Amino acid sequence: MRAEPHPSQAERLETLRKYKILDTEREELFDDIVHLASRICETPISVVNLIDADRQWFKAETGLGVRETPLETSICSHIILSDAFVEIPDTLLDKRMADNPLCTGDPHLRFYAGAQLIAPNGLPIGTLCVLDNKPRQLNDLQRDALRVLSHQIMRELELRRSLELQDTLRREMDHRVKNSLQTIASFISLYRRNADFANPGEAFDAIERRVRAISALHEELHDAGMGQEIQLDRFLERITEQLRQTLPDGIDLVVETETLIVGSAIATTIGIVVSEFVANSIKHAFPDARAGLISISLLKHKEDEIVLRCRDNGLGSLAVSSSGNRVERLGTRLKEAAVSQIAGQMERSIDETGYALELKIPYADYAH
Questions:
Q1: What percent of the residues of the chain are helix, what percent strand, and what percent coil, each to the nearest 5?
Q2: Which helix (H) or strand (E) holds 25?
Q3: Which of 156, 218, 301, 352 is least buried, going by the fewest C-beta atoms within 10 A?
Q4: Is the pLDDT confidence value at 75 over 70?
Q5: CA distances (Å), 97 to each of 23, 54, 62, 66, 67, in order?
Q6: Which of 150, 158, 161, 159 is nearest to 76 (CA)?
Q7: What is the pTM of this model?
């Protein structure tokens, strides 16, 4: 009798496949485990058995001589629906196995004991089992040994998966660093061609702002460990904390944000826009060492849109000069290019109360 699918079958199969163990070659480590299980339990057969969608596949086995069998004759497919450890002293007395041809005929599997291989999410991906061709029972030591060996198998699978993820992250980070270095090189090249070298410090300041924004992005990617996704409130805090260190006395920077998850391209654009806005406000909005306030807000406006608002209360008429120097004009073009790449819409306004910028960004909720 074929077992019913597991109640969480889709998630269970997804969990199994994350280990990338199916259809791999035999390995000494797993062969040693089944050999040891058979020796301890004094059974001719032992198997590391993974339950797939329509088959049971054996990563290691001793005493069977095959690598897989259909679920129609699988004992273990019943066991993953039961307790973490199951012992069947006589399979012919168990209604689930009484008509199983592997029990009623060759190879006459009359005894079964199995410990589930349970992933960290609580789902069973298979079993470590021992079988005999005559009815019998295990003693307590043998049962404990089978449980311990099943845990060892899962620790090995988890370790391999963790190492693979680390390797993937390392390759991804190498790729990011390469791209970031290329971006920095492009920035330097652009400023070298466009900067007014009567005031080279301004060009270097602009380059430094972009390098710091890229650095903050890498820190957030590294700390979050979420692939290409960024938690905006933490990222914006990194950016603004660096910017606060450049503020003259008497100028405050306040930030309002909420927890939002976005792709790295959006985060990069926000970092550039905020950095440029604050730098321009410091330079133009507060002459004569006057006090002032720069405010940044980043909030979800609609289900599919987030809005970045930057504002200062300085001299609005001086905050942005359409005839600014070449460095400022280049900075503006870079901001506009970054905004266009994420399909954003940016508006600026200037009045007697100060300078304001609003950036509307299409938003997909990466967290769900």
A1: 50, 25, 30
A2: none
A3: 352
A4: yes
A5: 27, 18, 21, 20, 21
A6: 150
A7: 0.52
Are the C-beta atoms of residues 313 and 247 closer than 8 Å to each other? Answer: no
Domain residues of the chain, as ranges? Answer: 9-161, 195-362
Runs of H (alpha helix) within the chain: 9-18, 28-41, 76-79, 101-104, 140-194, 200-224, 232-244, 264-284, 316-319, 326-341
Task: Of 155-169, 178-192, 242-256, 261-275, give the lowest mean pLDDT range.
Answer: 178-192
pLDDT in tens, 147-201: 999 999 999 999 888 877 666 555 655 555 555 555 555 656 655 565 555 556 5
| Top-level class of domain 9-161 | alpha beta
Assigned CATH for 195-362: 3.30.565.10
**What is the Cβ-side half-sphere exposure of residue 323, based on CA atoms within 13 angstroms?**
0
Whether cis (ω within 30° of 0) applies to the bond prior to 70 is no
The whole-number average pLDDT for the span 321-339 is 58
Q: Are strands 251-257 and 292-302 parallel, antiparallel or unpaired?
A: parallel
**122 has pLDDT over 50:** yes
Collapse the DSSP code of 89 into the 3-class scheme (helix H, G, I; strand E, B; otherwise coil) and give the result. Answer: coil
Which of 241, 240, 226 shows the shortest CA–CA distance to 273?
240
Give the pair of three-digit tokens for residue 51. Answer: 């339950």
